[in-house]
Amino acid sequence: MWARVFALVIKELLMLLRDTASRTVLIGPPLIQLLVFGYAASFDLNHIPYAVYNEDSGYASRELLAHFSGTTTFAQVATITHDAQIAPSINDKDALLVLHIGPHFTRDLLRHQPATVQILVDGRDSNTASLALNDANGVLLQFNQQWAAQHGWQGPPARMDVRSWFNPNLLSRWFIVPGIVALLTLVVTLLVTGLSVAREREMGTFDQLLVTPLRPVEILLGKALPGFLIGGLEAAFIAVVAVIWFKVPFVGSVLALAIGLLFFLLAATGIGLMISSIAVTQQQGLLGVFMFLVPSIILSGFATPIANMPEAVQLLTYINPMRYFLIITRGVYLEGYGVSDLIPQYWPLALIGVASMALAAWLFRHRTQ
């Protein structure tokens, strides 16, 4: 018995190694995913952009700022001179946090009174905000230890006063759940459309479709619309559950989310049809879907910030439709974005959708000839 099993195993291995498509599936996707995970999936923060609002002219504030500028973890990107500049620097994502030193910082420390340093942090990505606050705490601890040793303090001279914008309690659920709207919508739409044409080929009914009065464009639309409708219903259901069940605030425009969802479904449907047009069997279609899905999630900013990725990898994210829809969903839920605020996300998403549908139509016609 074991001899027959061994012979069957050898036969299957030989078939896999001799088939070009099988070799590509075995070698290509693991290497691609290894590179994507290795370079893009990082929770380490480097060169955290911060702005300085220093109202104190004493040497204690200069010493504290020297501790921040002396570490490679932080990178100062702006100097704020009045209160009105704080909000734009965080809202426009120019700075992840603002370091605000009050006008009596040095005076209070010289009087042996605890002085407060205010940290205003962008809380839209709760995980990144928590890591940045931990690093800022570490720098403040170094300053406290040095000042206490030089001036004979027993307790901590400076203490941190933290304010998180958009997510006051830094709840990870507020960051993750809006992203799940994009993630599950992409998964469902790709699975429905990515297997549609391949299923017809595998069942032997694809040729029957071609001899019907339906034109190729009508067949393509018939394959695209189910995925479009199912993906839209799935997204609407998850969006409602996020608010009612998970208590994620929805402070933006429903219309803005609907327009983004329309363009995102167009892009996901086009990509799914491209995969399905190339695949011969459902298994190949399924492998193609997951080969696209995993890098798409990693390169979208769903779990790890895009800013932490190498510049070459960041360029790849611009052709990823999930990148733009994540910004749309999180912006609508947490930041109160309207249609006009999201135009920079709409047009690249629409461009990807039109290009993917056009390429899917060309592949479909090419494979039917």
UniProtKB/TrEMBL annotation:
Protein name, as recorded: ABC-type multidrug transport system, permease component
Q: Does the keyword Cell membrane apply?
A: yes
**Principal location:** membrane
Question: What GO molecular function annotations does the UniProt record carry, in alphabetical order?
Answer: ABC-type transporter activity
Topology with respect to the bilayer: Multi-pass membrane protein
Cite the InterPro entries for this sequence: ABC-2_transporter_component, ABC2_TM, ABC2_TM_bact-type
| Domain ABC transmembrane type-2: residue ranges | 129-367
Q: Name one GO cellular component term.
A: plasma membrane
| UniProt keyword list | Cell membrane, Membrane, Transmembrane, Transmembrane helix, Transport
> Could you confirm whether the keyword Mitochondrion appears in this record?
no
